[in-house]
Write a structure and sequence with these properties.
By secondary structure, this protein is an all-beta fold. The chain is built from no helices and 75 strands. The radius of gyration is 32 Å and the shape is globular.
Length: 1038
C-alpha cells in the first residue's frame, strides 16, 4: 500500500484501511468498523478519506461484490473510527449509496460516498438478434425506455398524429424557443442498453425549414458522442422525406439517444422509423470496447482531391474553427475539379479544417507530408495545424511563395506531417493583411521518400550500456553541440565497462549528445524514463535535452544529488522522457561553477509504472455559484468550462514540471520546481493560440485558487495578451492551505513597466506562473476563470497628418475592435474601462499608436501619422554570381536552390513582410511596426522545413538591400543549429540599392558555436520609424 503524501506537517501521517464484506445473494448492511483513537492538540484540519477502488461501481444483476472500503489519513490522530452507512442488493436493480464518515479527536469531520449501480436483469435490454427499433412503422419497439420522447428540458412540443401520414409511426415536432428542438429516449444507469453490435442509427426526416440534426449518444461510463449532420446528406425517399444514416459509438451501456434539430428558420420537422442496424457482433465479456483508430489506407490519403474519393470520414468537414470563414465549392477558377474559394474572415484567422472526435482519430504515421494546391494574389502565408488525441499540437507557418509553380497562378505546397497515430484535426489558416480570397484544391497526405521514424526495440533501449549492445544507430554519437567538450572512453574509474570521462568545457556548456538527422528520427514513445550513471565531485546539475522532428524541445535540469547512490561515488539518475515518436537528439549538459570532470556510464531508456500524483490534503474551495453567462471558465470541476487550456506547460524558462491529480475527484494542476528553475522558472498555460485569442473584455477579474508548499518564497502570476501583459507578485505566500485570488485587471502591474504594450482583456493568450523556491516543491492550481462585469465607454480618436489635417478612412483599432475615421477624421470605439493601446493604420502612412486610459466616462485621443518614406523605383542590381557559383534562396534572376519557407518568424516585434514587384522582379519588403522601432527582428526561415542548409563550402551570404531614409541601424544574424553568426551595419546606407556581404569569417560568433554546415535562418533586425522599411532581393550563398 502506497501512502498518499499530500500533507507537509510536523506530525507523522498514519493510515487506516477500512473495509467491509458483502454477500452476492443477500441484502448487505455495511457495518461500522471501530478502532482505537489517539489525540493531539491544536488540530483544525479534517482527516482525509480516500476510496479504495472506483467512486462508482456498476454491477451486472446478481454479480458478486464486496465493498473495498476507504483509507484514512490524519495530521494528528491515528487509528480513527470510520462509520459506514448504506446497503446494496445485487439481486435488485437500482442505484445505491454507501457513505463513509470519520471525525478526529478535535471534531473535524470528513464524509465521502461511493455509488453502486446494479443493472437490470439480463433479458430486459439484452442485445436482440436483428435490428434494434426505438420506434418503427413495421416493428414493435425493441427496447424498454423509461424516458420515451423526452425533450431534455427544452419544452419541445410534438404530436404522434402528424399532418403527413406517409409512415404509420411518425412524430410532427414544432420548433422550441429554448436552446434546442429535442426528442430523446433514455434510461437510468441501472437500465443501460448494449448497442455495441450496431454500427448505424437510421431515421426518416421531412422538413423544409430545419437544416441539420445534432445526434447525441450517451453512456454510463464513456464520454458522450455528439455529432452534427446536414439533413441534405440523407437518402431521398420521395415526397420530401430523406433517410439519415449516422454512425453509432460502440457503447455497451447506452443511457440516452437524442436528436436536436437545428436551423434559424426552423418551424416543424417530421420524424419516423428510428432504429439501429449492423452485424450482430458478440460484445466484450468484461471491458467496454475501445473505438479503433482509423488506419491509414494504402497509397496516398485524400482529404479532398479532384481525381480520388475522400479516404476518411470526417465528422467536421470544412469546419471554420469559430472564425466565421466562408467558402464555396463552386469557385470562379475551375482548373481543378474539387476546389474551394475561401473569403477572408474578420476574425482571428481564415481557417478551413477537417476533424474528428478523439474516439475517431486517424493514424497518419505512414505519411511524411501533406500537399495542397493554392491560388491567391492577396494572402502571403499559411499556418498548418495538426492536432492529436495524445500529443501536443504542431503549428507551423509557410510562405506561399515557397510552393511549386503549377501555372495559371496556382502553386502546390508541401508541408511536413508529425508522425501522429491519432490525428484529430488538420487545419489551414491563410494569413495576410491584404488577403481577400484564396482558392484551395487537392488536399492529401503522401510519403515523400523520407524514412519513417526508427521504431523502438523490444524491452529497454540502450544508447550505450556496459552489458548490452547499442539499440540505435546514431549518426552523431557523442556530439558536443559545438561546445568543444572533451571526453575519453578510457576513464580513470573502470567500475563500469562502458563509461566516458568528460572534462569541463570553456564554452556555454559541458555537453555530450546523441542524434540523427530528421529523416532518421527515433520513436521513443514506449519509454517513460531515461537512466544514466554519474560520478563527480565537482559538477552539481545536469540539463537534459530531448528534441523532436515536429514537437517543441523538452529541456529540464536535475540536481545530481537526487540520484540513487550506487556506492564508490556513483549515482544513478532517473529522468522523465517526453512521448516523442520522432526524437532527433538526446543530450546531457553538466553544469556547476566548480565543475572539472564527470564520469558517465550506462545510458538507456526504460518504461516505469506511473507514480501517483500527490497533492494537497483537501480539494480547492468551491467557487461561488455563478450563472454560465457571468463567468468565462478555463479550468474547474465546479463551473461549466467555456474555453480550454491547450498547452499546460510551455517552457518559457526552466519551467516547473506539470502533472494533474485530484482530491476526491476534484482535479488540480501541479507545478513542481526543477533544479534549474529555483530562481524564477516560469511556465506558460496557453489558451489563446489554437482557436484564437480569448475575449474576456466583458469581465474585470482573473480568479484562481492556489495551494503553495513550504519552501517556496515567491510566486508571480502573469496574464498575457496579444498587446502586452501584466503580472501579480506574491512574496512570502501563504503555505499549506488553499488561497483564493481575485485579481482585478486594473490592479495588475505592467510586465515590463515600460513601452506601449498593455494588457488587452479582449485578446488574452496565456497565463504565466513563475516560481522561486526549493527544487521539488510545488504549487497547485484550480478554478481558473474570469468574472466581473465591465463598464463600457466611448473613445473618440482623431487622426491627423503631420500638417494637422484630419484623415478620413483611417483604420483605428484596439485589439479586435476597430472603426474607420469619418470625414472629420474621427473614429469612435466602445471599450471597457482600463488602459488601451490604440493603433492607427492609414493608407500611405506609417502605422502609429498611442495609449489611453478609460476611467469613469467617455474620453478622446488624438494621434498623428507620418507619410511612408519612399522605396525603390528600380529593380535590384543583377547578381554577380552565376547559378553554378551560388546556392540561391530568393531571386528572380537566379535559379532558386532552396526556397524560403517562412519570412515572418516573430523573434521580437518583427517587421511585417510583404512583396512588391518592379518590372518582373519580386522584392521582399520588411516594414517596421510601432513596437519594433528600436530593434524589431524577424527570422527568415530556409533550413527548418526540409532540414538545414550545408553552406560549409561557401564563403558567406550575399543579398541586395534598399533601406528607406529613416533606417538608422541593421543587424543580421546567420543562424545555425548550434549558434548564430552576427553582423552589425551602423550607419546604414539609405535610399539606394546596395550589396550586403556577410563573410562567415567576419561574423561575430558570440557563442563559439556557429556552424555554416547547419544553417536554418537569416535574422533581420531594424532600427527606424514606422514610416521605414528595407527591401531585400537576390539572397544567396557565394
Amino acid at each position: 500500500m502506497i501512502i498518499n503524501k499530500k500533507l507537509i506537517l510536523p506530525a507523522l501521517l498514519s493510515m487506516v484501511l477500512v473495509g467491509c464484506g458483502g454477500s452476492s445473494n443477500d441484502d448487505v448492511d455495511v457495518d461500522s468498523t471501530q478502532v482505537a483513537d489517539t489525540n493531539q492538540a491544536a488540530d483544525t484540519i479534517a482527516p482525509v478519506l480516500t476510496l479504495i477502488g472506483s467512486d462508482t461501481v456498476i454491477l451486472s444483476f446478481g454479480e458478486s461484490y464486496s465493498d473495498q472500503g476507504v483509507t484514512v489519513v490524519d495530521n494528528v490522530d491515528t487509528n480513527l473510527a470510520v462509520t459506514t452507512t448504506g446497503s446494496y442488493d445485487v439481486n435488485t436493480a437500482g442505484t445505491y449509496t454507501i457513505t463513509y464518515t470519520v471525525s478526529d479527536s478535535a471534531g473535524n469531520t470528513r464524509t465521502i460516498s461511493r455509488t453502486i449501480i446494479v443493472k437490470a436483469e439480463v433479458g430486459e435490454n439484452e442485445v436482440p438478434a436483428g435490428n434494434g427499433y426505438i420506434f418503427d412503422s413495421a416493428n414493435e419497439d425493441t427496447f424498454y425506455m423509461q424516458y420515451w420522447g423526452d425533450t431534455w428540458g427544452t419544452e419541445t412540443e410534438y404530436t404522434d398524429q402528424p399532418s403527413d401520414t406517409t409512415y404509420a409511426k411518425a412524430l410532427e415536432i414544432s420548433k422550441s424557443a429554448s436552446w434546442g428542438t429535442v426528442v430523446a429516449w433514455g434510461n437510468e444507469i441501472e437500465n443501460t442498453i448494449n448497442i455495441s453490435s450496431y454500427t448505424t442509427a437510421n431515421f426518416k426526416v421531412k422538413t423544409d425549414t430545419f437544416e441539420s440534426v445534432q445526434v447525441f449518444v450517451q453512456s454510463a461510463t464513456l464520454p458522450e458522442s455528439n455529432v452534427v449532420y446536414d439533413l441534405t446528406t440523407g437518402v431521398d425517399l420521395g415526397n420530401g422525406w430523406v433517410e439519415m444514416q449516422v454512425p453509432l459509438p460502440g457503447f455497451t451501456d447506452m443511457t440516452w439517444f437524442s436528436l436536436n434539430f437545428i436551423g434559424d428558420d426552423g418551424t416543424t420537422v417530421l420524424l419516423a422509423d428510428l432504429y439501429f442496424t449492423g452485424p450482430n457482433v458478440e460484445p466484450p465479456v468484461v471491458e467496454p470496447p475501445v473505438e479503433p483508430q482509423v488506419e491509414p489506407p494504402a497509397g496516398d490519403a485524400y482529404i479532398f482531391d479532384s481525381n480520388n474519393d475522400d479516404s476518411y470520414s470526417m465528422e467536421y468537414w470544412g469546419d471554420a474553427w469559430g472564425t466565421g470563414t466562408v467558402f464555396t465549392d463552386q469557385p470562379s477558377d475551375m482548373t481543378y475539379a474539387k476546389a474551394l474559394e475561401i473569403s477572408k474572415s474578420d476574425s482571428w484567422g481564415t481557417v478551413v479544417a477537417w476533424g474528428n472526435e478523439p474516439e475517431n482519430s486517424i493514424d497518419i504515421s505512414a505519411y511524411t507530408h501533406a500537399k495542397f494546391k493554392v491560388k491567391t494574389d492577396s494572402f502571403d502565408s499559411v499556418q498548418v495545424f495538426v492536432q492529436s488525441k495524445t500529443q501536443p499540437e504542431t503549428n507551423l507557418s509557410y510562405d506561399l511563395s515557397s510552393g511549386v509553380d503549377l501555372g495559371n497562378g496556382w502553386v502546390e505546397m508541401q508541408v511536413a506531417l508529425p508522425g501522429f497515430t491519432d490525428m484529430t484535426w488538420f487545419a489551414l489558416n491563410f494569413i495576410g493583411d491584404a488577403g481577400t480570397t484564396v482558392l484551395l484544391a487537392d488536399v492529401h497526405f503522401t510519403t515523400s521518400g523520407v524514412v519513417p521514424p526508427v521504431e523502438p526495440p523490444a524491452g529497454d533501449a540502450y544508447i550505450f550500456e556496459s552489458a548490452n549492445e547499442d539499440s540505435y544507430f546514431m549518426e552523431y554519437w557523442g556530439d558536443t553541440w559545438g561546445t568543444g567538450t572533451a571526453y575519453t572512453d578510457q576513464p580513470t574509474d573502470n567500475t563500469y565497462a562502458k563509461a566516458l570521462e568528460i572534462s569541463k568545457s570553456d564554452s556555454w556548456g559541458t555537453v555530450v549528445a546523441w542524434g540523427n538527422e530528421p529523416e532518421n528520427a527515433i520513436n521513443i514513445s514506449p519509454y517513460t524514463h531515461a537512466k544514466f550513471k554519474v560520478k563527480t565531485s565537482t559538477f552539481e546539475l545536469v540539463q537534459v535535452f530531448v528534441q523532436s522532428k515536429t514537437l517543441p524541445e523538452s529541456n529540464i535540469t536535475y540536481d545530481l544529488s537526487a540520484g540513487v547512490d550506487l556506492g564508490n561515488g556513483w549515482v544513478e539518475m532517473q529522468v522523465a522522457l517526453p512521448g516523442f515518436t520522432d526524437m532527433t537528439w538526446f543530450a546531457l549538459n553538466f553544469t556547476g561553477d566548480a565543475g572539472t570532470t564527470v564520469l558517465l556510464a550506462d545510458l538507456y531508456f526504460t518504461t516505469l509504472d506511473a507514480e501517483p500524483v500527490t497533492g494537497p490534503p483537501e480539494a480547492a474551495p468551491v467557487p461561488p455559484s455563478y450563472a454560465d453567462e457571468e463567468v468565462i471558465v478555463l479550468y474547474s470541476d465546479s463551473l461549466t468550462q467555456d474555453s480550454f487550456i491547450g498547452v499546460w506547460n510551455a517552457n518559457w524558462w526552466n519551467a516547473p514540471t506539470y502533472s494533474e491529480g485530484d482530491v476526491d475527484g476534484n482535479h488540480f494542476a501541479k507545478y513542481e520546481i526543477t533544479a534549474g528553475g529555483v530562481e524564477g522558472g516560469v511556465t506558460g498555460l496557453e489558451f489563446g493560440y489554437e482557436n484564437g485569442e480569448l475575449d474576456a473584455s466583458s469581465t474585470t477579474t482573473l480568479n484562481f485558487d492556489l495551494f503553495v508548499e513550504s519552501g517556496i518564497s515567491r510566486v508571480e502570476v502573469q496574464l498575457v495578451s496579444k498587446d502586452g501583459g501584466s503580472k501579480y507578485t506574491i512574496d512570502s505566500p501563504t503555505t499549506g492551505s488553499w488561497v483564493t485570488y481575485e485579481l482585478l485587471y486594473s490592479d495588475l502591474i505592467d510586465n515590463d513597466a515600460e513601452g506601449p504594450g498593455v494588457l488587452n482583456s479582449g485578446l488574452l493568450q496565456s497565463i504565466g506562473i513563475q516560481l522561486w523556491g526549493d527544487a521539488g516543491q510545488a504549487v497547485y492550481v484550480d478554478n481558473i476563470y474570469f468574472s466581473g462585469e465591465s463598464i463600457y465607454y466611448e473613445l473618440a480618436v482623431t487622426v491627423t497628418d503631420a500638417d494637422n489635417a484630419v484623415l478620413p478612412n483611417a483604420n483605428v483599432s484596439v485589439g479586435n475592435v476597430s472603426a474607420m475615421t469619418n470625414a472629420s477624421g474621427v473614429a469612435v470605439l466602445t471599450l471597457p474601462e482600463g488602459e488601451h493601446k490604440v493603433v492607427v493604420d492609414a493608407n500611405g502612412f506609417g502605422v502609429a499608436q498611442g495609449n489611453k486610459v478609460i476611467a469613469g466616462g467617455d474620453t478622446s485621443l488624438s494621434i498623428s501619422v507620418v507619410p511612408l518614406n519612399s522605396g525603390p523605383v528600380s529593380a535590384a542590381p543583377a547578381p554577380t554570381e552565376t547559378d553554378a557559383q551560388a546556392f540561391v534562396l530568393y531571386s528572380d534572376a537566379l535559379t532558386v536552390d532552396k526556397p524560403i519557407s517562412y519570412w515572418s518568424d516573430n523573434w521580437w516585434n518583427a517587421p511585417t513582410f510583404s512583396e512588391i514587384t518592379i518590372g518582373n522582379d519580386k522584392i521582399a519588403k520588411l516594414q517596421i511596426i510601432p513596437d519594433g522601432v528600436a530593434g524589431g527582428v524577424t527570422g527568415i526561415q530556409y533550413g527548418i522545413e526540409g532540414g538545414a542548409v550545408d553552406a560549409s563550402t561557401a564563403t558567406g551570404l550575399r543579398f541586395n538591400m534598399y533601406a528607406t531614409a529613416g533606417i538608422t541601424q541593421a543587424v543580421f544574424q546567420i543562424v545555425s543549429n548550434s549558434g548564430p553568426g552576427i553582423s552589425t551595419m551602423l550607419p546604414v546606407v539609405t535610399e539606394q540599392w546596395i550589396t550586403v556581404e556577410l563573410p562567415f569569417a567576419s561574423l561575430v560568433d558570440s557563442t563559439g558555436n556557429f556552424d555554416p554546415a547547419k544553417l536554418t535562418q537569416l535574422g533581420v533586425q531594424l532600427w527606424g520609424t514606422t514610416s521605414d522599411a528595407v527591401y531585400i532581393d537576390n539572397i544567396y550563398f557565394y
